[in-house]
Amino acid sequence: MDIFEKFQSDKGPLGRHANVEEGYFMFPKLEGEIAPRMRFRGKEVLTWSLNNYLGLANHPEVRKADADAARKYGLAYPMGARMMSGNTNLHEQLEEELTAFVMKESTMLLNYGYQGILSIIDALVGRKDVIVYDAESHACIIDGVRLHMGKRFVYPHNDIENLEKQLERATKLANENGGGVLVITEGVFGMSGNMGKLKEIVALKKKFDFRLLVDDAHGFGTMGKTGAGAGEEQGVQDGIDLYFSTFAKSMASIGAFVSGDKPIIDYLRYNTRSQIFAKSLPIALVVGALKRLELLKTKPELKENLWKVVDALQNGLKEKGFNIGTTEACVTPVLMSGGLNDATGLIKDLREQYNIFCSVVIYPVVPKNVIMLRLIPTAVHTIEDVEVTISAFESVKHKLVSGEYRKKGVAIIAEQ
Ligand SMILES: Cc1ncc(COP(=O)(O)O)c(C=O)c1O
User: Fold this and answer.
1) Euclidean distance between CA atoms 226 and 101, whole angstroms
2) Among residues of the chain, what percentage have pLDDT more than 70?
3) 135, 199, 292, 386 — which has fewest CB within 10 A?
4) Domain assignment of residue 1, yes or no
5) Domain check: are 268 and 310 in the same one?
6) Is 196 a pocket residue for ligand 1 (Cβ < 6 Å)?
7) Tally of structural domains, the chain
8) Positive or negative torsion for Cα 29, 55, 105, 236
């Protein structure tokens, strides 16, 4: 049998809907400068789906630094992996500045967050070691765990009592094997906006012997007094053994990093396969990241603006009776009830009649009959944007409850 044959009939859980949803729900094209207002299918929409938390994507100083760096160095330099021929003083400068910013001893740059953390997990654990991780971890953590040849235990999301049970099992097994225990969680969970219970997890170090790796993709730049993330916010940055974040969100770029004690970062430099066997970050991106980090440090008003918008949006939604779950961060889920047709009809209405673009999450990511609209506020949204959005949400919720979308849904999209 041709190995490709099965893909003709089964395009996978998302690909299955491609013929009716592609270009609208999947692979939509937002055009124009990255900002709260962009174009979708030729029309201006108010966007709430970009992780451009601090509004740096289109900040004039960032745009200038990116353009100047690209002009000066091109996008190729340096060639080769860091270890072989792709290292520069600027890569090392960025690592040093990140180290200071997240209050650790040393840092390693990574080309991408997803590949980076997956490969870090792979480098850290051997057959005898045991991983304990949160059930709602991002796909990059799950895939890193999948590479692990030894045992792994999962605990229900943020369930510290259960984590303790898993740590008991993990410790026993690790002791028998002569291995160690690695706990992995997120600083801020990207779907719910819940913070990882870092304080409680770090406190468990008194009882159990383990190391803690935290993916703070959504916390870096948005949480903590200086923006150093969820660890700083909860006062336990020291208890995080490896602090990881991507540049894909607050930094509005590409790349990532991991920080920790020098010996462990030195080990990772020589053993993280996604870095050893891949070309290093182009220097223009490194220069761009240095500029972004400078703005993170010198312009606290970016984070202040972000939180003004977050508070207005979350409080406003709650006042109007919306269920925004248990978020503690900028990520703002809005939970409603309905099936696939309700969800697609509602989103289409929001985009076409109210010119509002946000992401929607349905089963199997959330339980059956739950529609989760996911809003990402940024420092460059305005209070007026918030008001317009809440009012539109009231209208569509009313139509949803009255059953208006049920008969339309996917079908109306296919007509386009
Ligand atoms: C929690 C989390 N970790 C890692 C990543 C992956 O980062 P990158 O986009 O740099 O590959 C993401 C998404 O971008 C994320 O949300």
Assistant:
1) 8
2) 97
3) 135
4) no
5) no
6) no
7) 2
8) negative
Using the mean position of ligand 1's atoms as its centre, give its distance from the Cα of residue 304 in Å: 24
Q: Is 334 in the pocket of ligand 1 (CB under 6 A)?
A: no
Whether residues 38 and 181 fall in one domain: no
Q: Are residues 294 and 321 in the same domain?
A: no
Q: Which of 285, 284, 267 is nearest to 276 (CA)?
A: 267
pLDDT digits (tens, 9 = 90+) for 37-74: 999 999 999 999 999 999 999 999 999 999 999 999 99
What is the full DSSP assignment across 326-378?
T--SS-EEEEEE--HHHHHHHHHHHHHTS-EE-EEE-TTTS-TTEEEEEE---
**Which of 298, 322, 339 is a domain's end point?**
298
66 is written with which tokens?
């990116």
Q: Is the CB of 101 under 6 A from ligand 1?
A: no
374 lines ligand 1 (CB under 6 A): no
Amino acid letter, 179: G
Domain span holding position 29: 6-53+300-414
Region of poorest pLDDT, from 114-118, 280-284, 408-412: 408-412
CB of 248 within 6 A of ligand 1: the answer is yes
In angstroms, rounded to a whole number, what is the distance separating the alpha carbons of residues 332 and 310?
8
CA distance linking residue 263 with residue 408, whole number of Å:
59
At 362-398, the pLDDT tens digits run: 888 888 999 999 999 999 999 999 999 999 999 999 9
Predicted pLDDT of residue 362: 85
Distance 217 CA to ligand 1 centre (A): 6
Let me know whether 209 and 111 are in one domain.
Answer: yes
Q: What is the CATH number of the domain that holds 389?
A: 3.90.1150.10
